[in-house]
Amino acid sequence: MTDVLIGLGSNVGDRLAHLRKAVDGLRSVLRHVEVSHVYETSPEGVLTQPPFLNAAVRGETTEGPQRLFFWAKSLELAAGRRPGPRLGPRQLDLDIIAFGDLVVATPRLNIPHAAFAERGFVLAPLADLAPDLVLPGAEATVSTLAKRVGRAGIERAYPPESLSAPR
Q: Which end of the chain is more exposed for a tag (fewer CB within 10 A), N or C?
């Protein structure tokens, strides 16, 4: 089993429902799933779009990184995501932030995710789940990186239970 961290984001449609479905879908390929708080964040890049909800999931998998990547892309497609502008609005965005201590660099997949260390909307949820983790290529723990980047653009946080399916 390999420990993985996946970042989740949504800013189109029922954002929370998209994240819930993603967590449920990830449970098919992950064991011992933990979920971070859900953070409402200002968009970066394309600023004329709605705010995002961001979270992270930690779990263990027996799948390889490519298979997990394709599973994540299938969840995005099921949520209605279609090709659009880079950093633009999307129903669902799933990024593999870490896959054990593996480093992957292909045209479609980079692990650790290339810009994780500069993005508060990625680091805040990661710090909930793995504050002492040092990702390959990083010079500090996730919590130290999160403190450096700060909480600019993070508007609110909701408890991890927000991603539990309503009963």
A: C
